[in-house]
Amino acid sequence: MRVVVVGAGLAGLTAADDLAAAGADLTVLEARDRVGGRTHGIEVAAGSWVDAGGAYLGDRHTRLHALLSELGLKTTPTTMTGASRFALDAGGQPQTRPGRFPPLRAVALGELFDRLDQLATAVRVDAPWLTPDAATLDSLTAAQWAEQNLPHRDARRFFPLFLGELMAADPATVSLLHVAFYLRSGGGAGYLNAFQGGAQQDRVDGGAHQLCQLLAGRLGQRPRRSGRLGQRLRLAEPVRAIHQDGAGATVHAAGGAYHADAVVVAVPPLLADAIEFRPELPVRRAGERTGRGCAVKVHLVYPAPLWREHGLSGWSLSTAGPLLSTVDDSPPDGAVGVLTGFVTGAQARQFAGRTAAAQQAAVRAQAAHLFPQLPPPISVHITDRLTAQYSRGCYAALFGPGDWTRRGPHLTTPHHWVHWAGTETSTEFFGLMEGAVRSGHRAATEILSRYQPAGRSQ
Amino acid sequence: MTVDAVRDIFRRVLEPDASSVGPPGVGAPGIGADSDFFALGGDSLLATRVLSAVARECGVELTFDDLLRAPTPAGLAGTIARTIASVPR
Question: What is the ipTM of this complex?
């Protein structure tokens, strides 16, 4: 059985790994000149890697944990001890408070979380389009809902920060049904928001990018049954079109055409939508209101985690931006100190439009204002996935109004010989690395159960 | 608000998310009058939901720091009683 996998991110390589283990004759086509997709490591000092892409995981991310241990990778806890810095009043001085709780009315935030919990609990997580009142929920943006349902000013102030941090969303463009689904899919607002005991509890020691590098390495080592020559993984090979007939599929890429009995398309919906399908898809993978995840990740590198000496955790929240939050992402060996800053939501779109010099200046000025007790960072690394040609957004696609009701039923339905993977096709832990891994396993299982009983496997 | 009523709020808030996929992160067995909300697995987000439930059920708006200072059912019930007593009627 010949299988072509489109996309060498975590989803595509997980599917490829399963399929190769089952003996499929496999080719993985990747548009970039590297594997990893939306996971990517940067070496900020000799031997010290940080995650410019997907980074965090929690105990409920069971398939990711299984993959990590299979590949011999370890995790390291995200540290969050000490006081936080808050800059929530325009023009005011930032303040230090113990713990992570912002200086806002707790009851107002409690009502916000109560209401979000009600929405998340009501969602049919395996099929959001079948949620009671799905059409109404999917006709509203999160901002419209907030306007009508959050009487307290503090809740309305906090909501964009929360959605930005949690799902890189601008409330003005994301569907309310998508927010409710996302919360439920990720284990609830509490789990998604938490560091210790939540979805940000750990990082991959040495960087999450190693997952795809090791999976790609393992793919290269598996013996080919067909004995044909050629690499299994082809980089810098963007796919333009997938044509299908009764006999199979032909994947047209920049460097040639690849014939296959089955195809796994494991790229984000906005990129899948750029592939020409013949016959056409019954419903396109993305539409005009499907948004890019709006996150720019910024790494501020210090000689050591100096904020700890001041009793600070490194956590901060700012309403004015560009960094809406910062978190201590220092490598466990303490060789350098790293604060990761998140520019998300509407801020990210503005920020991405500025020159590199202006971005650097804005980040450094904000760091000096937020953390006057620290020296200027040694270096500042800015990773913009929003405009990256082969990501089109990060953390994940944001379904806009109408997307779930229209596209949801087709999310994982194969199109002839084409199967779908990618974190946006997983109703479990959508948008996270865990969702990507689960989607890869699912796509591989679909293909193996479809072909193997018929004796078409080699 | 009685100690038992506060304990019941702790229990509801600390129940593993109905929405959770996988094993529960926090549980609520054996919440006593002197059990510490944060030691039971409560975090700041869940704490705000305790405070919104208190506000809904007895009309008293407490702050996050009130819960930090009195993080047990007995302690918080005391804070609520003192707050009510201090409000002129």
Answer: 0.88
